[in-house]
Amino acid sequence: MTNNTNDVLSEPEIQVNKKLIDDTIINFLPKTHSIQEIDLLYNMMRDYPLRPAKGIRSSICLFTCQAFGGQVNDALLTASSLELFQNWILIHDDIEDESEFRRGQPVLHRKHTIPLAINAGDSLHGRMWSLLQNNHSLLGADITLNIIDEFINMLNETTEGQHMELSWSNTNDWDISQDDYFIMCTKKTSWYTCITPFRLGNMIANKHTIDENKFVEFGTNLGIAFQIRDDILNLTADGKYGKEYAGDLIEGKRTLILIHLLESCNNSDREFIESFFNNNREFREGNYQQLLDLIYKYKSLDYATNICNELSEKALTEFNNIFSDLPDTRARLLLNNITKYMVSRNW
Amino acid sequence: MTNNTNDVLSEPEIQVNKKLIDDTIINFLPKTHSIQEIDLLYNMMRDYPLRPAKGIRSSICLFTCQAFGGQVNDALLTASSLELFQNWILIHDDIEDESEFRRGQPVLHRKHTIPLAINAGDSLHGRMWSLLQNNHSLLGADITLNIIDEFINMLNETTEGQHMELSWSNTNDWDISQDDYFIMCTKKTSWYTCITPFRLGNMIANKHTIDENKFVEFGTNLGIAFQIRDDILNLTADGKYGKEYAGDLIEGKRTLILIHLLESCNNSDREFIESFFNNNREFREGNYQQLLDLIYKYKSLDYATNICNELSEKALTEFNNIFSDLPDTRARLLLNNITKYMVSRNW
Lengths: 347, 347
Fold this sequence. Notes:
Two copies of one chain form a homodimer. With 347 residues, the first copy, chain A, is mainly α. Chain A has helices spanning 12-28, 36-50, 56-67, 72-96, 108-112, 114-133, 135-139, 141-170, 178-206, 216-236, 247-251, 256-264, 267-278, 281-297, 300-323, 330-344; strands spanning 101-102, 105-106. The two termini of chain A are 20 Å apart. The mean pLDDT of chain A is 94.
């Protein structure tokens, strides 16, 4: 195994599992329909799932299941449903955030209009529950209902987090503390990226519910660190990253970087920043370099990197606490490396 | 009991059940949150459920359950979830259709912006599954999963129907046959308004799955007749109706009325119709009276009324076939009157 955590996703076991997940999703989603309009809907539902993605959430679920002594096959439908969750909610998020690119291609609503994309997101959302229902014959009724419970909780948290972030943009509210940001991140990112995937893997291995707090503190810290890393990459990454470079600045996203900048800057710089965000998208696309210069001037990227590192260390310590009693398996090692990758990745 | 089917919804038993459903929903949805942004989200989720609505779908589910010998209480969560389905999907439909009013008030996205409304719809969607999950302790795991299956199927059909209708508007396609319209209506309206509510009521009373075709032909005909009646009311109803008068013409909805008009009109009238729909919303808001005149000239409202009546008769015959073996209960009588109301209503 390589020592470079940025290569962890090319480990053969991770690739094998990713192929299983991709195949499960593509075999499950409907392919063609004799009515051409519905055929287009099916096409739209497969669009994001067919774009290259890392599959971190499904990998966490599968390897956690294995690390706790479960079988990959038992977690396959659930892990695939986590990817479907990510796919349908991204369709809606891309509309809500007015994003332009996703996974290196135009967002779905730019290809097919907003009305069709909202509806395709809802349709794909329905398919997610349908795939989860297939757990019934595999794992039995009770555990299937427990898994559905976890998904409902994850969806509640995610939409609350997304609502917080959208509200800030909507009311042009920049009076946001770092704590506000951490709560928003926990809801918007930590639950569906970390807490729930780990919980589901453990639950499926145990074939039983788990304590309601298990993985919550660990996953919260890991998820926030992951999100901060994502915010940093948006301003530093190269082509492999897949989203619009500096898109967060153009979309006016409240990141830890910007919150730190606003807490640190002098009045005249603050005036520029506020006027930048009061201007339209076209202006922001043409003038974000000045904002970037301020971010460097006030070392806001460094600040965010330090917080990301602190939270990562906490998360990795908690990882060891949770997993140290388990057998020293390849699954546990890979899971540990995925965790490290999430907070130090270059793409 | 009154003989006027338009008054059926004011029957005391229907009012009592409607209050039970409204209370179930309002007690279930989260009320307040200490974070003010999330408090607003909760407010948005309760908005449509708190607006006056007829509650036809939940009534069908409850009275079908009773007619088949089941208890109202057993169907209460499921019937309430049908109303939640209606509420969250209307939030998204109103965006997709660019509607202006819903139940006599501005649509949700006009009050709170499109991004917040898409997300609130998703959040309410999540709550629907959560309410359904509460059936677990009431009815047991197996029947709960069967109910969820019915909801998934209903959602698949509804989004396919909505997609068909949106695609026609999107591509400005007026080359639509009456059969295309009937398929679209079956998917968009019949499933969630008729087929699934009847099926769920029967299933909960039986405490077992029912034949996959049961209520499908009946509910298809009833649902299409209901939709045609809705299309007619959009051009004839008074203030009680709650939606924008002639909104269907302004939104360019493919109704049976318009399909008949296009099949019947001469070339110069067709040219006007096409130019009307090629024009922007403002033009259509100012000029729909001319289109309405053509609808009267070619008797397209009469044609639609006749088809509505034919389908209604079929549906009522099928109602008798399905329900005639059951005891002659008040629930069966009310259900029959609701069915009659759906296809002859004035609001």
